[in-house]
Amino acid sequence: MKKRHRHLLAASGISIALLITACNAEEASTSESQVVKETPVQVGEITKGSLTVKNEVIAKVTAGTTADVLPKMVGELVKVNVKKGDKVNKGDVLAVINNSDQQLAVEMEETSARSSQSQYDQALVSKSQAENAVNNARIGVKQAELNMQKAKNGQATGIDNSSFAVQQAEIGLNDAQTNYDRMKGLYDAGAVSKQQLEQAETALNQAKIALDQAKLQSSNAASNTDIELTEQALEQAKVGLSNAEQQLELAQIGIEQAQTGLESTDLRIQQAKDRLDDSKIIATIAGEITAVNGSVGEVVSTSAPFATVVDLNQILVEAQLSADQLTSFQKDQEISVEIPSLNETFKATVTYISNVANEAGFYVLEAAVAEHAGKIKPGMIAKVVQETAVGEEALLVPTDAVVEKGKDTFVFIVKDGKAVQTPVKIKNAQTELTAIEGKGLSEKNTIVLKGQNTLMDGNKVRIIKEERK
Questions:
Q1: Among residues 329, 272, 288, 266, which one has the least CA distance to residue 107?
Q2: Which of 319, 332, 330 has the alpha carbon at shortest distance from 370?
Q3: How many CA atoms, within 13 angstroms, populate the side-chain half-sphere of residue 343?
Q4: Other CB atoms within 10 A of residue 99 CB
Q5: Alpha carbon 322 to chain centroid distance?
Q6: Which residues form a coiled coil (predicted)?
Q7: How would you classify the pairing of strands 307-321 and 363-369?
Q8: How far from 397 is each of 433, 456, 468, CA to CA, in Å?
């Protein structure tokens, strides 16, 4: 009886142990099931904005300005100052053509100018003489008028007036003598002509006559019979004044003619110097010499370039656009230019877009690269890059976050630790981002970026961070 009781107790113990083991196994299985249901996911935020399309067009690099330098005259090169690869500034002398004939022409015109200057100086002297003659003639007229007045007013008054006339005549004679002596010295030095000396001598003689007349009138002041003589003297004096004034006008005309001749000579000198300067072949722009077509001793012409200068600071990128690409670009627009061989990107400004397609059906675009530190060279391959907004502003999510199953399109939003399947409508899709719209969606939502393909609506999720590479 006791033995059977022991067996029953043993059996009961085994049963209890098995039950406990089973319960523990069930609890373990339940715990493991809960862990599996928390799907690991990576998340991000919904953004708002416009999708952009990145346009890339293969282009070629050209120099902004290329200048063929043409000689301005035909002749033999006597000096060449440059070679290919040299850097030059605008205005630098690249070469010189034989200019002996042009130099001789300048010297001849300068000699002519000196002659014209001498004629002008002589005309000035003639005018000075004419002015002195006019002054002396006016004094003579004044003296004759005074003598006339003296004769009419009587002896006493006549004596006083004649004395004054004598004094004036003496002053006139002194001036005429001084002018004659000066002209004599200039004549002896070859500075004035004989005609000018004779004019001075004539003025001196007139002054002597005027003085003699004044003295004669003074001695005859008491005679009332002198009135007729004084009248004749006055008429002669007036004639002399008229002649002197005519000579002064002629002298002024002589100055004007000499001045015109001098200006004409100056013009011819400048023209001769311009022709002399034409013997220099000048750089019309700053840049690098890429071609030199001539050496010392060779003959150059005005129809063939002597050298070619390329401005490497002004770089243009030329691209061929299709009709579809044309709408993404406009003049004065800032774009990016990639140079694959340099692995660098530069800023450029669109300077030209053709309105007419070429024979290949493309539209030409040109863009000027602003700053490149001399790195970009003509002939390099480039890529014109421009991002263009597509469509209106919308909610944007990574394209991979959108799940498409059959006719359904949706994303998973994380809410209270669970994945909420949310239907969406695709407005526009690009490689990286997709524009969507959906009920209840906003920038505040957290969206599943990775792990969404294994989720179902309502699944619990465990957010993990993206591993750093």
A1: 272
A2: 332
A3: 0
A4: 19
A5: 34
A6: 197-275
A7: antiparallel
A8: 6, 19, 21
Among candidate residues 130, 132, 140, the one with its CA nearest the CA of residue 238: 140
- Please tell me the distance from the alpha carbon of residue 261 to that of residue 443, in angstroms, as a whole number: 90
Structure-token match 């989720």, residue found: 455
Within 95-226, residue ranges assigned H as helices are: 100-153, 155-188, 194-219
User: Which two structure tokens, joined as six digits, stand for 257?
Assistant: 């003619």
Q: Tell me the two tokens of residue 230.
A: 């004084």
CA separation for the pair 17, 150 (Å, rounded) = 178
The 10 Å CB-count burial string (b at 16+, else e) for 44-59 is: eebeeeebeeebebeb
Three-class secondary structure of residue 113 per DSSP = helix
Which structure tokens are listed for 435? Answer: 């524009």
């994303």: which residue's tokens? 411
pLDDT, one tens digit for every residue, the chain (469 residues): 333 333 333 333 333 333 334 444 444 444 444 454 789 999 988 988 877 777 789 999 998 788 999 999 999 999 999 999 999 999 999 999 998 888 888 888 888 888 888 888 888 888 888 889 889 888 888 888 887 777 677 655 555 666 777 888 889 889 889 988 988 888 888 888 888 888 888 888 988 888 888 787 777 655 555 667 777 888 888 888 888 888 888 888 888 888 888 888 888 888 888 888 989 999 999 989 999 999 999 999 999 999 999 988 888 999 999 998 888 889 999 999 999 999 999 999 999 999 999 999 999 999 999 888 888 988 999 999 877 776 678 898 999 899 999 889 999 999 999 999 999 998 887 778 888 888 889 888 899 999 888 899 999 999 988 765 5
SS3 state at 276: helix
Which amino acid makes up residue 121?
D
Domain ranges of the chain: 39-51+392-463, 104-274
Residue 329's alpha-carbon distances to 54, 334, 369, 415, in angstroms, are: 12, 9, 16, 44
